[in-house]
Amino acid sequence: MPEESKQTVLVVDHHEGVRKQLFWALEEKYRVLQADSRRQALQLLETEPINVVLCDLRMPPVESDISEGLAILEAARKLNPLLPVIVITGDEDRETALKVVQRGAYDLFHKPFKIDEVEIIVRRAANHY
């Protein structure tokens, strides 16, 4: 499929290995952009036509009561309230999942993740948008 006709997925994670794994899993069907920080993610959200965001919940710096992932989720929702943001987390805590959904996440999946499950969630989100 030509690059310009693919929907765009933004993968935000400070771990390069996670970004690469998601890139390789999604690149055939989507145009995949990568960011390793909130600053870089927000720049791409403001300049690129993003259809789906995959965002790690816990990224450095962890300086406030709101995680970088939640800050990205909230910023993305302000820029485009319909943009599906899927949160990636290592937390198995139900409270974390509830907080993410209350803040407007489209969905959530846990690390370690199964690529086929991620592909299903991304496809569903992309079709929703």
What can you tell me about this protein's structure?
The structure is a single chain. Helix content is 43%, strand content 19%. The chain is of the alpha/beta class. A five-stranded parallel β-sheet has the order 2-1-3-4-5, with helices on both faces. Helix 2 packs parallel to helix 3. The protein is globular. It starts with 7 loop residues before the first strand and ends with a helix.
Largest sheet: 5 strands, parallel
DSSP E strands, number:
5
Low-confidence stretches: none
Outline: globular
Indicate the multimeric state. single chain
Q: Give the ordered list of helices and strands.
A: EHEHEHEHEH
Q: Quote the distance from N terminus to C terminus.
A: 19 Å
Q: What is the helical fraction, as a range of percent?
A: 40-55%
Strand order, largest beta sheet: 2-1-3-4-5
Rounded average pLDDT: 88
Radius of gyration: 13 Å
In DSSP terms, counting alpha (H) and pi (I) runs of 4 or more, how many helices? 5
